[in-house]
Amino acid sequence: MISRGLISQSINYMLEHLDEGITIKEVANHFHYSEFYFSRRLFTRQLSLL
After folding, report:
1. Cα–Cα distance for residue pair 15/27, rounded to 1 Å
2. Which residue from 33, 21, 50, 19 is spatially nearest to 9, judged by alpha carbons?
3. CA 16 centroid distance within chain
4. Over the range 18-45, which residues count as b (16 or more CB within 10 Å of their CB) and which as e?
5. What band does 2 get if pLDDT is binned at 50, 70 and 90?
6. Rounded CA gap, 22 and 6, in Å?
7. 15 pLDDT exceeds 70?
8. 13 and 27 in contact (C-beta within 8 Å)?
9. How many Å apart are CA 1 and CA 14, to the nearest integer?
10. Which 3-state string (H, E, C) describes the chain?
């Protein structure tokens, strides 16, 4: 299971790079995950969006 710490780190990373037009793919790559896994598994399941 992915920790809430990784979610917090991801959100912080996105906020730090928001003005650069960062994509979900770039965030996923930064944390060494595929775009699909990062967006579907990490966020939707951990944050109970599905």
Report:
1. 11
2. 33
3. 13
4. eeeeeeeeebbeeeebeeeebeeebbee
5. low
6. 18
7. yes
8. yes
9. 21
10. CCCHHHHHHHHHHHHHCHHHCCCHHHHHHHCCCCHHHHHHHHHHHHCCCC
Distances from the Cα of 4 to the Cαs of 27, 29, 33, 42, in angstroms? Answer: 16, 18, 16, 10
For the chain, first and last CA: distance in Å? 16
How far apart are the C-alpha atoms of 12 and 40, rounded to whole Å? 19
- In this predicted structure, the answer to whether residue 13 has a pLDDT above a threshold of 80 is yes
Note the pTM of the prediction, 2 decimals.
Answer: 0.71
